């Protein structure tokens, strides 16, 4: 390894009572790929925000090629050659690729933009690293993978030689991710130095030369790729051996929900295209897929918030036409929304209000809300599902992500629903909370609930689901049994490669 | 029908169109600049009122007309600073802050005006801007009197629309403004300071609004009276949507709007007694509403409009 | 320097905020009075005397407060559901002219116990109609209702002006543009003899309590709050967004229309285009000062009425333009916004 091009020296940062970074040091060599591994809340993002000048550290410093970087100055970080590719893209969808790349790169008061030269430079970079994007395309019209390329191009255009990628594969298919990693390796070979942030062990093992593990705001370990293995990294990341609960075999019951040839359009775009599936009591059906392929619409359809264009929904064998939220709640469909903060709860309302809002008919008389029984209901949920950090009257926003998810699970599971719809139920939760959610889902399955699990997390689906279908661009693959599914096969399914004839024959 | 043709054939109509359009052009450009950076400025109505008052008062107290324009612009900028403080630094609701600025700026104008100008039967007047004949062009038949005998601020407003279009779409500064209005986080990540961009845009935009107001008292009329802005500010806000946030279209929109207005004014005099004049006066407002309904879904709204930006908060 | 969200807001702070905001606005207004060369403390004193100094002035203040409570409620109800109804001024005028028209042409012969409730309903209905137009535009074409309600204010006043200059013009009005007066049976009973204070105040107070109960106790109240705080979350929980907004618009527009109705039936008896000294716009300030709380609206409306009535008296005796009241009210809105911010955030370095 050559000498360090970047040194992060003893950086600490505190937010209120929370010590987000505690004396963290890290170095990066030229042409090296370092993975920053840790759970949510381990301090990865804070550390990178300090590196990039978004936060000022309480103590410690950052050296680039031996020179100290002034803290809290994003511009200085850019000038020193640090480029950041955020997990959530930071792009302006109404502007072109070129405009997105050029913004902020020229002297602000110059009386004319050097568009021509910029376009030539961008084309050059595209060619050198094999990142093809049309400079004059509107960013909003690009695919997710292309948008990520624009993010990387932005950094490279600024002559970055240190590139930080924050969970770069979160939105990519397996194939796209593999392609990204090979691009990253090419870039390292060309002399760039890379840090990528992840909590996925597979990709850390696959792509990094060296792995730095953060936990609870501290650096707990540093391993070269060839000296470690997944099991060790997992234990280091979590701090203890975590056993996710495992599914025991069972025999599913009768079909409770049948979706036949259903299509749904949102704002004129067809998001679900003639999908078919059926869900049985006592089983978990996993729907895997990369985000943005129609999962949200599928979840909304079964939650009762969108209307179908064609096809039939059969609930317990009866055609029900369009499902409304009231229908769903009354029929005993538990609904866990994929976006907790946006749909799952109204942060500024009290916990008890969030518990009863979707079942107001039960908690009201003559149009008056029955506050005492609503609060008692919330109390039961808090008790039974171990929701910590609030009483029924506490504002829901004050709960942590894990506890908010317990509240949402609780209000759905406390009445023993016959169907449970779980959209990305563990997204953004830490390992402990994930295990708790998994346990609840399996418990519901044991109790005979039919569970539809929509998830991007392959490991999760493989561990929990009895049968698996992939959703790609609004279409559903035929189901395959979880037993026969390998990661490779599922990866191909997520990329849209399934052989309809063959699969159908042995699916049921 | 003949009456309609007569109206359109008179050079007076077309001269009036440019005159009516000028405050709208200035106000719309100001609002557009604010919104391109992501800030809705409903202070516009009050800022225009204050600009009208202070511009007039400056000239009334002996300063020359351009000083009046300058003072109106500066005071508009100060109100813009207030609005930016509330919406950019504190990140408050842009709707309510803007209304607050409007209520304050307009009542403050009336207060200052009443305090400094004694009540009189007829409001005191100043000597307003005089039309300038553009050499050669003004002697063209019809077109000359129709288009090239305007007061200097009108020519300036038209040039300004072109200039703002150039700045927004051809310069690094303009790209920074548009980027901030679309996604301030992305702008920040590229080393642009979104706070500074928004402050700058709101202050300059508000200055334009102030100047737009001053045109009313320094060129279109020669005195100030309360309620003289008459919702022009709100019309400008509608015109921004109509123009899809593009200065060139804003210019066209304002002219089109003024054409309707000038036309109805003339039609009004011909049809007085037959149709109540109030019907004609309603037209501009109804037209604005119609324009909004027509364009609201089609227009490409700056994605971060009305979203406060706080560092590190998403 | 950065702002950090406060996790817990103390009740004391929430209550203290409007008081501080008003004090701050008064201090700034004092500065303006001082610049005008008048003794500040005396001006304050004269405002108080003007508003409360005599039985007459006290009843006058309450008379002013009555429509302000209603327009304040109109704004508070709407804003809570994030329906930006800035059109209370227009709804006020439409309510007023509808009442004048209905009383002089339709129900004029009916006895008071029948006519008054009928007219109140007519006034409210007129306000509702005017607000449903921008709401429809929002739901159908996604047009921002702020601008449309603002624009419709001008349309409404012109419409009223047209009517009182035409079909509804009072033939006995010496040529002035004013509407025919409401029937004698339509005049709201006075609360005290020899004052202008009428039962409209009681109506406003009862409605403030009613709105409070509806918002805090009913299914509709909870749903409209949810719709305002987080539309996506509300939809997920099964709140019918469109229907909730329509209901909110009916309450809001109805309250504003009612304000116009009681002003015609209780105070002036006929409609002119200067019937409202900006009650609709002041209602926005009242609602914000009350932090959108219906009972707080009553107090905020009282403050606003004190400023307007008091400043009238003060301006006559001290030569300070009475616009100082508008300035103070506007400043109190801005201070209130800033104050509310600091109850939610703290400054961090």
Outline the structure in words:
The complex is a heterotrimer of chains A (about 500), B (about 325) and C (about 350). Chain A is of the alpha/beta class and about 500 residues long. Chain A contains 18 helices and 23 strands. Helices cover about 35% and strands about 25% of the residues of chain A. In chain A, the strands form 5 sheets. In chain A, strands 13, 16, 19, 20, 21, 22 and 23 form a 7-stranded mixed beta sheet that branches. Chain A has a 6-stranded mixed beta sheet with strand order 6-7-8-3-9-10, sandwiched between helices. In chain A, strands 2-1-4-5 form a 4-stranded antiparallel beta sheet, covered by helices on one side. In chain A, strand 11 and strand 12 form a beta hairpin. In chain A, helix 14 packs parallel to helix 15. The N and C termini of chain A lie far apart (about 55 Å). The relative contact order of chain A is 0.10. Chain B is mainly α and about 325 residues long. Chain B has one domain: ABC transporter involved in vitamin B12 uptake, BtuC (Orthogonal Bundle). Chain B has a two-stranded antiparallel sheet with strand order 1-2. In chain B, helix 7 crosses helix 8. The longest helix of chain B is centred in the middle third of the chain and has 27 residues. The mean pLDDT of chain B is about 90. Chain C is an all-alpha fold and about 350 residues long. Chain C has one domain: ABC transporter involved in vitamin B12 uptake, BtuC (Orthogonal Bundle). In chain C, about 70% of the residues lie in helices and about 0% in strands. Chain C has 13 helices and 2 strands. The mean pLDDT of chain C is about 95. At the B-C interface, helix 5, helix 11 and helix 13 of B face helix 6, helix 11 and helix 13 of C.
**Total number of strands of chain A:** 23
Helix share, percent of chain A: 25-40%
Number of strands of chain C: 2
Shape of chain A: globular
Overall radius of gyration of chain A: 25 Å
Q: Secondary-structure map with pairings?
A:
The complex is a heterotrimer of chains A (508), B (314) and C (349).
Chain A: E1 4-15, E2 18-29, E3 33-37, H1 44-51, E4 59-64, E5 67-68, H2 74-79, E6 82-85, H3 97-102, H4 115-129, H5 144-157, E7 162-166, H6 174-189, E8 193-198, H7 201-207, E9 210-215, E10 218-224, H8 230-238, E11 255-266, E12 269-280, E13 284-288, H9 295-303, E14 310-315, E15 318-319, H10 325-330, E16 333-336, H11 340-344, H12 351-356, E17 364-365, E18 368-369, H13 371-384, H14 401-413, E19 419-423, H15 431-446, E20 450-455, H16 458-464, E21 467-472, E22 475-476, E23 480-481, H17 487-494, H18 500-507
Parallel strand pairs in A: 3-8, 3-9, 6-7, 7-8, 13-20, 13-21, 16-19, 19-20
Antiparallel strand pairs in A: 1-2, 1-4, 4-5, 9-10, 11-12, 11-14, 14-15, 17-18, 21-22, 21-23
Helix pairs in contact in A: 13-14, 14-15
Chain B: H1 2-9, H2 11-36, H3 44-60, H4 65-89, H5 94-116, E1 132-133, H6 143-147, E2 149-150, H7 152-170, H8 172-182, H9 184-189, H10 194-220, H11 232-242, H12 247-270, H13 277-295
Antiparallel strand pairs in B: 1-2
Chain C: E1 2-5, H1 11-35, H2 40-52, H3 55-80, H4 88-105, H5 112-141, H6 145-165, H7 200-217, H8 219-229, H9 231-236, H10 241-268, H11 279-289, H12 294-318, H13 324-344, E2 345-348
Antiparallel strand pairs in C: 1-2
């Amino acid at each position: 390894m050559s000498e360090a091009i970047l040194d992060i020296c003893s950086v600490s940062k505190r937010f209120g009572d929370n010590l987000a970074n505690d004396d963290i040091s890290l170095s990066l060599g030229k042409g090296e790929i370092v993975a920053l591994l840790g759970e949510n809340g381990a301090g990865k993002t804070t550390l990178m925000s300090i590196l990039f000048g978004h936060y000022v550290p309480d103590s410690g410093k950052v050296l680039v090629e031996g020179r100290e970087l002034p803290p809290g100055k994003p511009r200085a970080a850019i000038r020193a050659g640090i480029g950041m590719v955020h997990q959530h893209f930071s792009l302006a969808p109404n502007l072109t690729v070129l405009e997105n790349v050029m913004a902020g790169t020229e002297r602000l008061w110059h009386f004319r933009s050097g568009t021509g030269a910029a376009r030539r430079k961008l084309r050059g970079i595209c060619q050198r690293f094999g990142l093809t994007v049309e400079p004059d395309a509107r960013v909003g019209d690009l695919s997710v993978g292309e948008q990520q390329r624009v993010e990387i191009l932005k950094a490279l255009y600024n002559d970055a030689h240190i590139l930080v990628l924050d969970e770069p594969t979160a939105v990519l298919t397996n194939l796209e991710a593999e392609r990204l990693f090979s691009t990253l390796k090419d870039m390292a070979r060309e002399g760039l130095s890379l840090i990528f942030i992840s909590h996925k062990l597979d990709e850390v093992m696959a792509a990094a030369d060296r792995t730095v593990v953060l936990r609870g705001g501290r650096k707990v370990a540093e391993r070269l790729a060839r000296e470690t293995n997944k099991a060790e990294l997992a234990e280091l990341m979590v701090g203890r051996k975590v056993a996710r609960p495992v599914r025991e075999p069972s025999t599913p019951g009768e079909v409770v929900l049948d979706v036949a040839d259903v299509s749904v359009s949102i704002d004129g775009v067809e998001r679900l295209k003639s999908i078919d599936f059926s869900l049985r009591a006592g089983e978990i059906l996993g729907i895997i897929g990369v985000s943005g392929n129609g999962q949200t619409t599928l979840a909304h359809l079964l939650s009762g918030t969108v209307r179908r264009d064609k096809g039939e929904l059969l609930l317990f064998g009866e055609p029900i036409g369009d499902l409304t939220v009231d229908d769903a709640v009354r029929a005993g469909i538990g609904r866990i929304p994929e976006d907790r903060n946006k749909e799952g709860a109204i942060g500024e309302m009290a916990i008890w209000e969030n518990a009863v809002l979707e079942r107001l008919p039960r908690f009201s008389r003559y149009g008056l809300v029955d506050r005492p029984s609503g609060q008692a209901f919330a109390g039961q949920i808090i008790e039974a599902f171990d929701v910590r950090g609030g009483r029924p009257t506490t504002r829901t926003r004050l709960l942590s992500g894990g506890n908010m998810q317990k509240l949402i699970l609780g209000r759905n599971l406390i009445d023993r629903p016959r169907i449970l719809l779980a959209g990305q139920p563990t997204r953004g939760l830490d390992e402990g909370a994930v295990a708790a959610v998994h346990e609840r889902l399996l418990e519901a399955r044991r109790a005979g609930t039919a569970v539809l699990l929509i998830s991007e997390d392959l490991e999760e689906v493989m561990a929990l689901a009895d049968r698996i279908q992939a959703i790609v661009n609004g279409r559903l693959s035929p189901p395959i049994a979880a037993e026969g599914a390998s990661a490779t096969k599922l990866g191909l399914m997520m990329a849209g490669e399934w052989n309809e004839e063959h699969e159908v024959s042995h699916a049921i | 029908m003949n009456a309609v043709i007569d109206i359109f054939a008179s050079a007076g109509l077309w001269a009036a169109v440019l005159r009516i359009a000028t405050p709208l052009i200035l106000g719309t450009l100001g609002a557009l600049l604010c919104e391109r950076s992501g800030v809705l400025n409903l202070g516009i109505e009050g800022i225009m009122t204050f600009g009208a008052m202070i511009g007039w008062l400056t000239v009334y107290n002996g300063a020359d007309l351009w000083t009046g324009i300058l003072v109106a612009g500066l005071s508009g900028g100060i109100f813009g600073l207030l609005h930016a403080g509330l919406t950019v630094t504190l990140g408050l609701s842009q709707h309510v802050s803007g209304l607050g600025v409007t209520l304050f700026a307009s009542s403050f104008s009336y207060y200052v005006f009443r305090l400094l100008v004694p009540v009189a039967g007829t409001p005191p007047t100043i000597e307003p801007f005089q039309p300038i004949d553009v050499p050669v062009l003004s002697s063209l038949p019809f077109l000359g009197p129709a288009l090239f005998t305007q007061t200097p601020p009108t020519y300036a407003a038209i040039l300004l629309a072109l200039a703002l279009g150039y700045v927004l779409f051809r310069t690094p500064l303009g790209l920074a403004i548009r980027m901030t209005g679309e996604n301030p986080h992305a702008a920040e990540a590229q080393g642009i300071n979104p706070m500074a961009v928004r402050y700058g845009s709101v202050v300059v935009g508000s200055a334009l609004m102030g100047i737009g107001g001053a045109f009313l008292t320094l060129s279109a009329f020669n005195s100030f009276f309360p309620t003289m802005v008459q919702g022009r500010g709100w019309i400008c806000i509608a015109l921004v949507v109509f123009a899809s946030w593009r200065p060139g279209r804003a210019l066209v929109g304002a002219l089109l709007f003024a054409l309707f207005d000038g036309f109805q004014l003339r039609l009004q005099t011909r049809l007085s007694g037959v149709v109540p004049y109030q019907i004609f006066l309603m037209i501009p407002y109804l037209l604005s509403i119609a324009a909004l309904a027509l364009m609201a879904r089609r227009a490409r709204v700056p994605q971060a409009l009305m979203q406060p930006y706080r560092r590190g908060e998403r | 320097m950065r702002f950090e969200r406060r996790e817990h807001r103390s009740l004391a702070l929430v209550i203290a905020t409007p008081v501080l905001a008003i004090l701050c606005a008064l201090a700034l207004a004092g500065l303006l009075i001082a610049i005008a060369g008048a003794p500040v403390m005396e001006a304050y004193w004269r405002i108080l005397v003007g508003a409360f100094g005599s039985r007459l002035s006290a009843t006058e203040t309450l008379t002013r407060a009555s429509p302000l409570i209603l327009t304040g409620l109109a704004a508070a109800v709407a804003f809570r559901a994030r329906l930006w109804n800035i059109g209370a001024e227009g709804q006020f005028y439409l309510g007023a002219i509808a009442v004048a028209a209905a009383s002089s042409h339709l129900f004029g012969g009916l006895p008071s116990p029948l006519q008054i409730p009928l007219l109140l309903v007519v006034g409210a209905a007129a306000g509702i109609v005017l607000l449903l137009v921008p709401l429809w535009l929002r739901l159908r074409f996604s047009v921002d209702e702020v601008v449309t309600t603002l624009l419709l204010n001008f349309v409404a006043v012109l419409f009223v002006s047209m009517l009182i200059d035409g079909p509804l013009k009072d033939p006995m009005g010496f040529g002035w543009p004013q509407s025919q007066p409401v029937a004698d049976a339509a005049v709201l009973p006075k609360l005290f003899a020899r004052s202008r204070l009428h039962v409209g105040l009681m109506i406003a107070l009862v409605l403030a309590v009613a709105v409070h109960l509806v918002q805090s106790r009913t299914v509709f109240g909870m749903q409209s709050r949810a719709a305002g705080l987080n539309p996506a979350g509300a939809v997920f929980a099964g709140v019918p967004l469109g229907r909730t907004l329509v209901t909110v618009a009916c309450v809001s527009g109805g309250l504003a229309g009612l304000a116009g109705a009681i002003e015609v039936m209780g105070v002036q008896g006929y409609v002119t285009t200067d019937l409202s000294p900006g009650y609709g716009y002041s209602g926005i300030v009242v609602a914000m000062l009350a932090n959108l709380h219906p009972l707080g609206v009553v107090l905020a409306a009282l403050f606003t009425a004190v400023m307007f009535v008091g400043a009238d008296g003060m301006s006559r005796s001290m030569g300070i333009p009475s616009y100082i009241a508008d300035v103070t009210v506007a400043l109190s809105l801005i201070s209130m916004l800033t104050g509310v911010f600091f109850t939610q955030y703290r400054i961090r370095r």
